[in-house]
Structures are given as structure tokens and as C-alpha cells.
Design a protein that fits this description.
- The structure is a single chain.
- This protein is α/β, with parallel strands linked by helices.
- It has a single domain (about 10-225), classed as Vaccinia Virus protein VP39 (Rossmann fold, 3-Layer(aba) Sandwich).
- It is built from eight helices and seven strands.
- The chain has helices spanning about 10-20, 25-35, 45-60, 75-80, 95-110, 120-130, 150-160, 185-200; strands spanning about 65-70, 90-95, 115-120, 140, 165-170, 205-210, 215-225.
- A seven-stranded mixed β-sheet has the order 3-2-1-4-5-7-6, sandwiched between helices.
- The structure holds S-adenosylmethionine (SAM).
- S-adenosylmethionine (SAM) binds near residues 70 and 95.
- S-adenosylmethionine binds near residues 45, 71 and 98.
């Protein structure tokens, strides 16, 4: 399995920033601890990234959010909290076990009425959402299996509208984007997604590098034209 490497200074600064600025509450801490207790991988976004997602939902005025990759609901809770009354978040999760734990965490956070967890392969769920003729999504957060990242970007455009905000997590992956042999499972998908972001006729994008408890990584931020 591909390992993310951290440096003590990055983690200490992140902990300081989390405690000083971000203040994740009990419901968010529960989403992290319940995943550890259930033996799920600790691959949720960091608290400062979660708060960033919540702020993006608020700044963009999003009423409808689509998430690909739920895990235990940590990022779902952050984003759902940024939604106005009547706002809605659809989150796609392949594993029923993860979806069940996420559902309990989202309910405990008092957000069950705002969040719809769809279990199954995201590509199937995204096609189903299109068939259902749902209103366009205002913000899409992509954080699932990296091999399908480029497909998910295409779906974000199809299920979005001009102005839809797209966030693609894990866009740097310890620098494996320059050296795919570091992670032959995930790096090629991330590289394809970055190439698509750079040339997609309907997307304007940038990528921000980050360091912290999740190692050296980054996220792409895009807007549908
Ligand atoms: C990185 S975790 C998501 C973390 C979550 N966004 C957070 O920050 O709290 C990725 C999740 O995507 C799920 N996943 C992987 N492949 C998937 C697929 N093809 N369709 C839907 N979900 C998938 C995994 O089971 C895992 O729970």
C-alpha cells in the first residue's frame, strides 16, 4: 500500500491551526474516531481542509453539493454544515459498511435531513443521478478511487452548470504525479485528471499544494465555464 510521509513540523503546525482556528466539534471528532474503531483507513480530509470545503460551499452560495467518496462522513458533515436551509448533499460510497457508519455520524451531527448517501460504484450512481433529471449541482467534491478521477471530472461538468465549483482531492500525492512508478495504482489516474483539467474546454482550474498530517499532497480547484 502507498504510504504518505509526514514531517513532525507539518503535523505540529496543523494541530496548532486546528486547535486555534478550526475547532472541530464532537460530531466531527466522532466521524474520525468511529472510522478508526471500525478499522477503516484514516483517509478523511484534515480538519483544516474540511473547514475549507465548508467555507467554499458558503462562499459559492451552493445549495446542492455532490460528493464522491464518503468514508465515515467527515467531509460530508463539514460541507452539509455550509448549506443553507433547504440545501442538499448527495454523497456516493461504494462500501455499505462505510455508508452505514457515515449515516450514523451524519445523523448524530443533526444533518440526516440534508444528506443522501448513495451506496454503489460512483460511476453507476452518477449515471443514475443524470437519469433522475436532478437539478444541477453547485459544488462537486471528488475524493474516491483515483483511477476514475478523470471520469468523475467529466461527470462533474455534466451534472453541474456554468459556475459549478469542482474540488479534486489528492492532486499531488507525494509528488507521484511526476513519478507514477511510486504508486502505479493511483498515480496514473491522478495524472490523467490533471491533464484533463488543463485542457477541458469547460473547466478553468488550478492546483494548490499542501502539507500536513496527510503528507505532501494538494487539491485541484476548478470552475465550470
Ligand atoms: C478518501 S475516502 C473519502 C474521504 C471523505 N471524503 C472524507 O474526507 O471524510 C474514499 C472513499 O471512497 C470510497 N470509494 C472508493 N471507490 C469508490 C467508487 N468506485 N465509488 C464510490 N465510492 C468509492 C471508499 O470506500 C472510501 O470510503
Amino acid at each position: 500500500m502507498f504510504e504518505h510521509k509526514t514531517q513532525p513540523g507539518w503535523v505540529a503546525v496543523e494541530e496548532f491551526l486546528t486547535a486555534t482556528v478550526v475547532h472541530p466539534d464532537d460530531a466531527l471528532q466522532r466521524a474520525v474516531s468511529s472510522a478508526v474503531e471500525a478499522g477503516m483507513p484514516p483517509i478523511e480530509v484534515s480538519p483544516n481542509a474540511g473547514k475549507f470545503l465548508q467555507l467554499l460551499v458558503q462562499i459559492s452560495g451552493a445549495r446542492r453539493v455532490l460528493e464522491i467518496g464518503t468514508l465515515a462522513g467527515f467531509s460530508s458533515i463539514w460541507m452539509a454544515r455550509g448549506l443553507p436551509d433547504g440545501g442538499h448533499l448527495v454523497t456516493c460510497e461504494y462500501l455499505a459498511k462505510h455508508a452505514g457508519i457515515a449515516r450514523a455520524n451524519i445523523e448524530a451531527a443533526g444533518l440526516g435531513h440534508k444528506v443522501d448517501i448513495r451506496v454503489g460504484a460512483a460511476l453507476d450512481t452518477l449515471a443514475a443521478l443524470q437519469s433522475e433529471g436532478q437539478e444541477p449541482f453547485d459544488l462537486v467534491f471528488i475524493d474516491a478511487d483515483k483511477e476514475h478521477d478523470a471520469d468523475y471530472l467529466d461527470w462533474a461538468v455534466r451534472l453541474g452548470r456554468p459556475g459549478t465549483v469542482v474540488v479534486l482531492d489528492n492532486a499531488v500525492w507525494e509528488g507521484a504525479v511526476l513519478e507514477p512508478s511510486m504508486d502505479e495504482v493511483n498515480a496514473p489516474g491522478i495524472i490523467s485528471a490533471l491533464e484533463l483539467l488543463g485542457q477541458h474546454p469547460e473547466l478553468d482550474a488550478t492546483v494548490i499544494q499542501t502539507v500536513g498530517s496527510k503528507g505532501w499532497d494538494g487539491f485541484a480547484l476548478a470552475r465550470v465555464r
